[in-house]
Amino acid sequence: MSKNPDQALRLMIVDDSVEDAEAIVSALRNSGIAVRPLRPASEDELSTMLGGQQIDLVLAAQQGKDLPFATVMQSVAASGKDIPVVAVSNGIDDTSFHEAQSAGARNIALRDKPQQLLATVRSEWDDLEGRRALRRLEARVRETERRCDTLIESSRDPIAYVHQGMHIRANSAYLEMFGYESFEDLEGMSLLDLVAPQHVNDFRELLKDLAKGDAPPPRYDLEARDADGNGFPASMEFAPATYEGETCQQVIFRRQEQLLDPGLAQELEELRQRDQVTGLLNRPTFLHMLEDAVADAAQNKAQHGLLLLEPDHHQRLLHEIGLDAADAMLAAMAERLRTAIGDDAVAARFSEHSLAVLIRGSDYAQTTALAERIREAFASHVFPIGNRSSVITASIGGVQIGEKIASVTQVLAKANQGVQSSIGVGGNRFEIFDPSAVERAEEEHVQAWVARLRDALDQENFVLHYQPVISLQGDTGAVYETFLRLDAGDGELVKPLSFLQIAEEHGLLWEIDRYVIGHTIATIGQRISAGKPTTLLVKISQASLNDDSLVRYIGEQLVAHGVPGEYLVAQLPEAKVFTHLKAAQEFAAAMGKLDCRIALEQFGAGLDSFQLLAHLKPNLIKIDRSFVEELPKNVANQERIREIANKARELGIRTIAEFVSDAASMSILFSAGVDYVEGQFLAGAGPDMGYDFE
């Protein structure tokens, strides 16, 4: 299961040995897993932690004596939570395996096989995320069904749900059309009973075809019969559906007036299916077609293509042409799209300013070719918009609909993801998700990001934002934390979470570090020259921590800009210092010679964070954000913060609490003796440094 790379594993380790537990945490962090560990020392602590915190996984020593494995399993079961337990064993045989399985452990990991332990942790975490996602999806489905039921009941269209030819649901408009007072009069009645005798045989054959999975006709005309036996001309529409988890058919009846001209009726039906601004299909009609295509892929292993597209820099375009011309712009886009797709595909207006295309019977190559044809048709065209004209490029996201992704929800989500990803790397491009070629699509996405990062470094398209770090103890000096942003154009700024992992994997992270540090020092120099001396905190990545040339570069930049080292604070994450202690010690010593200061961030997330301070003494520590979230409600976190602040003060280290979100948290942090705070509640990060520290 794909997880946010910054997502932390909330891990409980039950082990007699602190050293063994820390070794497991270090191994997981070295493999790239962010870990928030807990280690209960008693049965009471175990119960308190299970009851008061979210825990993703428990690693419990099968041969533990302080907290026996059976006790751990009983406590986890008593919590009533879905918390997988992995038994950590010194060795495995039939007896130990049977005991672990019988106790309820989901898996067994061998202590002396770190790769197997790591694989087990990843597997169980993925399974847990899958179960959580399924529960969220089931909740959304129930909510969607509830809303759909409400919408159906309020609809003016006569709508019913039919299973094996029998009515299982009908709305008020349907009951009114056929003259029934309540659904109880209709429940369980065959749909054939509402059809005039001369149409019964043909209609019975239609129901048999639908039951076999055949596609329904777009429209079926017949004579219907109401509760009193009176006949009237009607048309019917069918769509596959589910009701209360049961596969069925949605049926919509429409009364046709006797004197209505057939040609006029068809024209009205055509208008009902069209968007009035663009002339393309409207969203409901398109979704019906998409549902049919997805069902065809699931049942008949067919392949179809879906494309969603949005104009790049939409807000800027609206600003240039005026809101009154928005419909004209969309109509011009629709006309250009119509000419690009030809007769082999259908197009629709999918939302306010996005269009959609469905290509039936299309393989990946054909879907990709059409996406490129549309992209080129937009990029090479000057769009007439009323009395003006404009160049409009498009970002396109697509999905190859096949047996592996036969779900409308998944199809639309993947297509929209492709649109947003295309916008994120500059627009005027397309991304097609093919379940059979995920690796290829991912590689193309990564290479686009690498090229964009390389260009951002060369063209200086990175920008820095600053968030004030405010003293709770009366210090009025200006202090800010520096944050990196990527300028995506059109005023859009991309946060590092979207690209730092790619930058690290492709050797660009050390260059980005130098960009940030160089510009940070230059900014400090400008502030000093303006008579506004300012201290800036800047993050240092692991890639630069292991590169001894970074300190030389910092020294050169300090001299070049006339900046005393005391105004620069380099932040190191606790987890990386634990696993790269020697490099961190050498870096801190070298920075000390320049009078620069060191801050240790994400402090307190380890099993014994203060043990680290015996090997590396920073000037500041930033308390891990997990202790600050919902602080007023969490007494344990309040006590932990007070403990950290007191110990830090004894060692002459100042403390910073980040992500402060309310006044109650501020009061608690002040009384705990924390030195500095930062967060959206106080001031957000921005390009300017205008906070009044007085």
Give a short summary of the structure.
The protein is of the alpha/beta class and 694 residues long. The protein has 23 helices and 27 strands.
Q: What does the model show?
A:
- The chain has 694 residues and is α/β, with parallel strands linked by helices.
- It has 23 helices and 27 strands.
- Helix 21 links the parallel strand 24 (597-603) and strand 25.
- 35% of the residues are buried.
Structural class: alpha/beta
| Separation, N- and C-terminal Cα atoms | 49 Å
Q: State the helical fraction.
A: 40-55%
Rounded to an integer, what's the Rg over CA atoms?
Answer: 32 Å
In terms of DSSP E residues, the strand content is 15-25%
- Overall average residue pLDDT: 85
What's the total helix number? 23
